[in-house]
Amino acid sequence: MFTSLGGVGLRSPRLSRSMFWLGLLTIVIGYLLTTEDLYRYANWQSRGFFSGSSAGFNASSAQASSSLPFNYKAVVAYQAKDRSDGVYANIKNNSPTGEDNYFIAMRNSSDLYAGVADGVGGWAEHGYDSSAISREICSCMRDFVFTSCGGKSTPFTPKQLIDWGYTKVKKDEIVKVGGTTAIVAHFAPNGSLSVANLGDSWCGVFRESRLVFQTKFQTVGFNAPYQLAIIPDSMLKEAARRGGSYIQNKPNDADEYNFKLKQNDVVVLATDGVTDNIAVEDMELFLKDHADDANLQDTCQTFVDQVVKLSKDPTFPSVFAQEISKLSGKQYSGGKEDDITVVIVKVE
Ligand SMILES: *[C@@H]1O[C@H](CO)[C@@H](O)[C@H](O)[C@H]1NC(C)=O
Ligand SMILES: *[C@@H]1O[C@H](CO)[C@@H](O)[C@H](O)[C@H]1NC(C)=O
């Protein structure tokens, strides 16, 4: 086809050849000059541009994974729910994050562990600091990354980290009583993301603002997540006597995941204060709107601020309200007020 056109071109006079191109150009421009088509053209342009840059990007990422390590940037934002009510008034040591807690342990810019944990609130009603267990486990996990394990050359998995954190808090009797979810992610120098999740916190990876990976919630029933618990024997016996029991999982019950990251991926770790309110699609829209933000910390804070606002909106059709509506057959609406903690890691 191309050769045959060339043959025609060779035999044609110069003038008619340029007239042919002029004509073609006119037709193309004519085709483009409606608003809709201009819009389509612009899209095509950016897609074309994007695909060009993505080809270059693939090349550089292939190079990066073979020689240069990946780099990670991590930020956190949180907002504890309002605790003016009496149950919490006499409880000391509440974390600024509420019953949520987090840790970010960056050994260097290409080797990072991060996690969030959500303490089970019910214990506050019995006079216990229900933020203690998530806070202490996070603190032990952070210490492990930097001290106990920092010197070892063998890499350790997020599940091992959860196990070590929980075992230490339990063995050293750092916390009297409590229960917590835990999700931990490791970002390795080679771009491999590994995640261990126990309970209903969440990890998602967004690429070009689209979700490409997410963890599954672990629950034993509605609003009853898997949890690591510390409960004195006397309480266990008392519960058994009354025919009840507590949810008590082992670190080994955590689901494990592996995912290969690419440059510019955005990884979100969040407690259920986020996922009970907004859906993945809402997160995608948010990230798309903020794709050009210069400051990751500001993006994370704005994200949390928006979720907090929705969680207090009585008309917002939150994920939680929709689930209750489905279960009860009645229409509910409104956000779910809760502690909200978000760690965002950007792959650079
Ligand atoms: C970062 O830490 C990891 C594990 O400790 C190590 O393998 C890697 O070489 C370090 N990278 C840099 C850039 O220091
Ligand atoms: C990347 O690093 C992780 C964590 O150290 C390791 O488990 C995995 O095998 C590595 N993957 C490749 C393809 O080298």
Automatic annotation (TrEMBL):
SMART domains to which the protein is assigned, alphabetical: PP2C_SIG, PP2Cc
EC nos: 3.1.3.16
PPM-type phosphatase domain mapped to chain residues: 84-347
Entry-linked Gene3D superfamilies: PPM-type phosphatase domain
Reaction(s) the record says it catalyses: O-phospho-L-seryl-[protein] + H2O = L-seryl-[protein] + phosphate; O-phospho-L-threonyl-[protein] + H2O = L-threonyl-[protein] + phosphate
KW Hydrolase (keyword) present: yes
Family annotation (CDD domains): PP2Cc
Pfam families reported for this sequence: SpoIIE
Cofactor(s) named in the record: Mg(2+); Mn(2+)
Keywords: Hydrolase, Magnesium, Manganese, Metal-binding, Protein phosphatase
GO molecular function (one): metal ion binding
Family recorded in the similarity comment: Belongs to the PP2C family.
Protein name from the UniProt record: Protein phosphatase
Organism: Lachancea fermentati (Zygosaccharomyces fermentati)
